């Protein structure tokens, strides 16, 4: 009887049968070729949509202006014009504006990392009496549209309290507001909440103070989330247009995002596209270098867990 019941017991469903298409359907020629064709078509479409504009920009950057206007989709009908890159770098001054963008991005990244790590550490590890209230207020600020804050923030930059010195035409006008990111602080706090508390308690027993605990224990364990916040901070600073346009009136210190639209009417199309391509190289190369830590999602997944 027991042997009969064991033979009659239903088999457990294999994991591969729980997907959208079972293994049996995959063995059917029609389904296999149809789904394979659909996946290939989807991959080609994503590549065309994602890489198409970048590849076209790279091609147009070294194409004569007349060829770009008359034959925009043709591959070098009358040869390449490599002089577009040198003219964009020297005549347009892309090199100087690129350096301004790098300085602004690094300063914004540094202020955001300092504020986010220290704020998250204070709210998660030190846990003051009103930590929950402060966290709730930070979350509430995420629902305020950024455009609403432009006027009061501009007034504070022009007439900062206690300092009485305008920050207009100074990089501090971009670095200081960039550090006030509630999203980064909350993201850091969520990640710190998932760190093992036993390590913190053991460090305190050994006589480790708050500063030593932050520098020697918390920061080395927080490299994934620091990498994620760094990518967000650098990309946001690199593509920011409206705020640098308002607070940086001197063209010599403006970034590429502000200068490129201004020089569009003063430069021929081929040179302008070459300048745009140079502006895109740095974020693309940066993403390729740090794509493993960014796509792995260790920091972001740990921060948003629960």
Task: Please give the radius of gyration in angstroms.
Answer: 27 Å
Which structural category do the helix and sheet elements fall into? mainly alpha
Number of helices: 17
User: What sequence of helices (H) and strands (E) makes up the elements?
Assistant: HHHHHHHHHHHHHHHHH
Strand segment tally = 0
* β-strand amount: under 5%
Which assembly state applies to the chains in this document?
Answer: single chain
Average predicted confidence as pLDDT: 82
Shape: flat
Please estimate the helix content.
over 70%
Distance between the termini: 48 Å
Main pleated-sheet profile = none
Poorly predicted ranges: 1-6, 298-306
Short description:
This protein has 306 residues and is mainly α. Helices cover 71% and strands 0% of the residues.
List the helices and strands and how they pair.
Elements: H1 2-8, H2 23-26, H3 29-61, H4 65-70, H5 83-90, H6 94-126, H7 131-141, H8 150-158, H9 172-179, H10 182-193, H11 197-205, H12 210-221, H13 223-239, H14 242-247, H15 256-263, H16 269-295, H17 298-303
Provide structural commentary:
By secondary structure, the chain is mostly helical. Helix content is 71%, strand content 0%. It is built from 17 helices and no strands. The radius of gyration is 27 Å and the shape is flat. It starts with a helix and ends with a helix.
Short descriptors:
disordered C terminus, mainly alpha, 306 residues, 71% helix, disordered N terminus
